[in-house]
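User: Quick one: structure for sequence A, then sequence B.

Assistant: Sequence A:
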Amino acid sequence: MNHEIDLKKYDIRTDLIDETKGIDEIDKLDKNEQIIDDITINKIYLNKKQARIINKCEGNYITISFKDITDYNNKEKVKEIFSNELNSLLNKLNLFNKSCLIIGLGNIKSTPDSLGPLSIDNIIVTKHLYDLGELEDGFNIVSSFIPGVTGSTGIETSDLIKELINTVKPDYLIAIDSLASSSIDRVNKTIQITDTGIHPGSGVGNSRKEISKNVLKIPVIAIGVPTVVDASIIVSDTIKYMQRHYAFNKKYQNNPMSKLTVSSSINYLKEDIEVTRDDKLELMGLLGYFSNEEIKNLIFEVLNPIGYNLMVTPKEIDFIIEKLADIIGNGINHVLHKNV
């Protein structure tokens, strides 16, 4: 059976450069990967030609992927790496020791969309002290603002920030926002830093004016964490995990040790298991002929027209979002204020 799906018809939402379709096929991509303990740091630079191919903006993209921040030591380790990467990017862009305006995008009343406002709560602002001549050495000129969402203010967020910049006159902007992912594995476990700007609301399909250097005329550093995922992604990933689980059980079904272990307690994802075409056909029947990408887009095609492709977030989001806001807010403090 040869079943083909035109992927151009579909728009599986993701804001992450690592998940962008076609990124792995780009020739001579400037990409670097570093692993520190269980934290992976991916750095990508897209030139104009490469960016145009995948419909992204030219610039630097830094992706920090981690497994857990619920533990204090893990959280502090991620915070340190985040601070180091942000510090390196600011130095690269020659923005160090310059005045900064930090914007917390999102809706404080919606937990998965509250990362920006909650991060701002942790920022040490100093511009008022500088204006009074009382700013101590070791502290940068920093101001912050939470613009709210256009649905509440009636004002386009990008326009509001533009007018604020005309008044405050910062040298550069840092924008913090919640993102969307096309993988369950990424939700609340990835921080993306980029100098290409940000599209507030784009993560949930609510396109608004971009917040970028092109619009604001000053450099824009965007920091985001995917906190939501499409329901279609959850269903398709579950099918993929079902296939892995089936292949795992099939491989070890005659192993005497398996009979002494409760199968539900085994993390089969840690095993190097190959899911063959026969495994897929045995388990899924006709659906076994489809690739993972085709299954993902087929489910999107089924759920989206009837309004069931909901945006989903983990049940522990209230707890996790506070940890993420601490990492980002205080991580920025460590970079901008050397006396912290």
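Sequence B:
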Amino acid sequence: MIVLVLNCGSSSIKYQVIDIDEQSNALLAKGLVDRIGLPEGSLTHKPVGKNNFELKQPIPDHTTGISLVLEALTNPEHGVIADLKEVKAVGHRVAHGGEFFKSSVIVDEQAKENIRSLFEIAPLHNPANLEGVLSIEKVLPGIPQVAVFDTSFHQSIPAINYLYALPTEYYEKYRVRKYGFHGTSHKYVAKVGAEMVGLDFENSKIITCHIGNGGSVTAVLNGKSFDTSMGFSPLDGLVMGTRCGAVDASAITYIGENEGMTYAELNAMMNKKSGVLGLSELSSDMRDIDDAYDAGNEKAIVARDMYYNRVKKFVGEYAAEMGGVDLVIFTGGVGENSADLRRYVCKDMQFMGIEIDESINVKTRGTNTLLSTPESKVKVAVIATNEELVIATDTYNLTKNL
């Protein structure tokens, strides 16, 4: 069964086409539509076993972008299917499911309305995600669509971990609580990691570290999310590329009062001007920070060490919450590729039973690899995330019998 997976952002569409069944899956093509709504848009299409295809032209909206994707998929030279009828379902990444969605769902009118009702608390992501759904309705009318939510995996978190110690009325009125994000990634790598090291997923204590420009750490207890570092929004928890992570709220109100900043300006400062960028005053890209770090730039050194150290703190916190840990997993762009990050987090953690083989660590980039020594009581692994495969799998399981 061929599934089209879409991840629609405000001005972009990432996509994959996956042929999937009960026993196997095969990537047929992937690509990116970028700069939607800007004067010059682009499509980069990468079919497996064929030459890549690039197109530059104005792409006014998501419907146009998806139409270009479908044309590329069926093109005789760089296409991977003969007819659009071969695509049996479309799976969408949707950032926020609120308390409506504890698992992936087939999209119907109620699902669309619930996604729309969350625009206020996910203004950067949910409108674009829903636009992808509505665009498919225009260009492939009648095809089954599935929504897979970043937040669903974290709906198992208990109240002691998802509630904030604020007046209860604000939870009851506005559903202000921890939701968590990166759920498809945390779920996927935890399951794959458990299989790799021989753990019973449903009787295990796993800490997953999804580290990139955005990042979060999750405590996975007996196969379910027990706690996670992101909160009501993706702002909380780790130091990130441009996000501040956990910070005393009084520091924010103090800055806002003294600077005469509006709520919108404060929100932009915390989300777009803080984190590694704000600390270093150089860049939000860890590759740039690594170069400056190696050159002895003091601000870059503080920024990178803080970025790394916050991950380490959450690993310790979640081990304490779960009463131990069997497996620590690194994933995401930085987690999979940065030996420095993994070394920092695991250093001096022998008291917790964590010990990695540095000779393996330094040469591991983006591949599923066991990093821990044979003597380490806690297993440590790099697992390459594959959120698109999770979306395709859920889409297949929900639509295969329609």
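The chain has a mean pLDDT of 96. The first helix runs from residue 62 to 74.

User: Thanks, that's what I needed.
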